[in-house]
Amino acid sequence: MISLIHFLNILLPALYFFSFLIYFYDFMKDEKKFINVERIFLFITLLVHVVYVFVRIIEFDHPPITNVFEIFTIISVAIGFSYFILELVTDIRGTGLFIIIISFIFQLISSLFIQDLIEVKEVLRSNLLGAHVISALLGYAGFTISAVYGFLYLVLYKDIKLNKFGLIFNRLPNLEVLERLSLYSAVIGFITLTIAIIIGVIWLPSAFPNFSYLDPKLIGTSLVWILYAIGIASNIFGRWRGRKLVLLSITGFVVALLSTFLSNFLARSFHSFY
Amino acid sequence: MNLIAISINHRTATVELREAVFLSEDEIRAVTKKAKENLFKEGLVISTCNRTEIFGFPANSDLTHQHIKNLITDIKSSKEISDENLEKYISRDALRHLFKIASGIDSLLVGDNQIFKQIKESFQIAEEMDFAGFLMKRIFDSAIRTGKRAISETKISDGAVTVSYAAVQLIEKIFFNLSKKSALVIGAGETGEIAAKHLRDKGIGRLALTNRTFEKAEQLATELNTAVFPFDTFKDHLYKFDIIVSATSSPGILLSKEEIRSVMKKRNFEPIVIMDIALPRDVDPESKKIESVFYHDIDSLNIIVEQNLARRKAEIPKVEKIIEEELLSFYEWYNSLQAAPTIKELRDKFESIRAEEVEKNINKFSAEDREKLEIVTKRIINKILHHPTTELKKTDETGYTGAVRFGIIRSLFGMDSDKEEK
User: Fold this and answer.
1) Interface touch B176/A180, C-beta < 8 Å
2) Are residues A31 and A114 in the same domain?
3) Any long-range contacts for B139-144 (C-beta under 8 Å, 24+ apart)?
4) Nearest-by-CA chain B residue for A243
5) Among all residues of chain A, which has the CA nearest to that of B153?
């Protein structure tokens, strides 16, 4: 089993990179030669990744959330999986390379530094904690994808305004589609983050005697949650559309990044496990 | 193959001459009638605003390009056509030229697939007038296949190559579903009319018009079944539209930056596309600096047109490869019409039928009769094929008549369909 884990650990970045290359080729050439191959290959990559995660869970007897590099592999699969679902639902394929490169980077870092931890804190073996962390990561995966589409929106917006009708103009979907993709990813992220917060608020006080509502990670996450809630509500009520909306999504993502960084590496609390 | 062709096109003739030799449908019929009576066994006459072409298989060996030119000058006597105005083609070059036309690479606007439809219509006329015979039908099939392959296998027809289509392409890069959008066309002149028709054809949700002369706008609005606003009040309604196309002949700015800004405030800065295709411009170009205003004028649309044309031109080698493949395939078929291969195939076909039937029934014969059965059946086949074989060998192998005769034999005995099945 360990040798399988080590093999998959090496294989996964290679698979993501190859998926990225196929999407990249298709984006540059627009020949639609690999239009189905890229989707099938990404599916195989994600399948291998899910197997890898489960094999780790079985072998090490804890959810893969005990250190940063385990978290990174979950972020990688969550981003890849969310994109795959989005591509299936919308059938918009021209943007895969911008998302898969992120999965690749996270998985590469994870593969390089991940360790085979068998001895972990007892609390990290909890399935509820697993559900809490994984749903939070799915939320952040949604926000990441939303920010990427937001960024692509801004690039295309600028190109159209400046009469630059190059590769970006020709290959990307139209602005409204990019805005929707950004919005849908943010909504999915928001829902899963809400689930993570609910599990956390119910379970964390009983699991951690030193639980505090002033915990930096809790405050940061709440701030991110409020930002996205405002953006989504504004969109529903027709107040914020287009550039404003994607700017909000990108802001939300930056705040999420900062909050994760600050709460994990600078502030110490019951909420830091590694 | 003795196919012969003349072409008056955008390379050889001025627009005045091209217009002068343009043949209406009735004139095509008249030329076809004359060509059939005096010059060709079968052929094709194509005429569009950018080219007039005559293809045919000569009835006499002394036919020259001058005779074909006279077909046009007899009907269009007002214009002098010099030798420089003609491109002349024979045999394989004539066929290659037709394939180039069908694929759009010979068009003034490279990749323009309107020509594809026009060739079909020309062929229909030739067929109705009994001018498209056995060979011409095959050539037409190959030309159409070449055109279809060029469109589906290359990007020769991709992207907008006119300003009005470029405007639509740009609008589609901003909005997802035009059926949920509304557009206002300011100006009911020719440009405004084309823009309005393009938008309607693209399924715009709501279309409205305004024009300084209200009656003109009303007339166009009735034709297109759209709403119409009086020119002096249209600014009050601007905020209701996602797309504004301005194409008036106004000498100065119609819409200032401040007016556009106030429209955007009313729209809560929801994106708006302004296509200013008027010369001089109708909308203050500074409006593009306002958030969510996508302002474009003729110059920016021309950038798209030029880029698309350059991309189409880059596809020409791929189309030429398809043309060469189709030429090869056509000549493979054409050469199969010659005597030796046709006779051999005909004999093989009969022999395989004989052998199959003998094999099926062999058990009904006694051992000593089986050899006789082989001899007798072979003799029957030889006798049946003797006369056709002799006649086919007599035929001029390269001539038009020969090709038609071989073609008929092949068609009657399903020899080409056998090949395709294999």
Assistant:
1) yes
2) yes
3) B139/B3, B139/B44, B139/B55, B139/B95, B139/B98, B139/B330, B140/B44, B142/B95, B142/B99, B142/B326, B142/B329, B142/B330, B143/B98, B143/B99, B143/B101, B143/B102, B143/B119, B144/B102, B144/B116, B144/B119, B144/B120
4) B292
5) A31
Express each pLDDT in A34-64 by its tens digit.
778 888 999 999 999 999 999 998 888 877 8
Residue B132 among the catalytic residues: no
Q: Topology of B163-303 in CATH?
A: Rossmann fold (3.40.50)
**B251 preceded by cis ω (within 30°)?**
no
Say if residue B183's pLDDT is above 90.
yes
B175 touches chain A (CB under 8 A): yes
State the catalytic residue, choosing from B15, B49, B384, B408: B49
Residue with token string 């009319």: B193
Which pLDDT does position B55 carry in this prediction?
A: 94
Number of domains in chain A: 2
CB pairs under 8 A between A and B: 43
Decide if A156 and B307 are in contact by the 8 Å CB cutoff: no
- Which residue type is seen at B265? K
Question: Which chain B residues have a beta carbon less than 8 Å from that of A177?
Answer: 176
ipTM value, please give it: 0.80
Q: Do A161 and A264 fall within a single domain?
A: yes
CATH number of B4-158, picked from 3.20.20.450, 3.30.460.30, 3.40.50.300, 3.40.50.850: 3.30.460.30
Tell me the shortest Cα–Cα distance from A39 to chain B, in angstroms. 22
A160 with B269: Cβ contact below 8 A: no
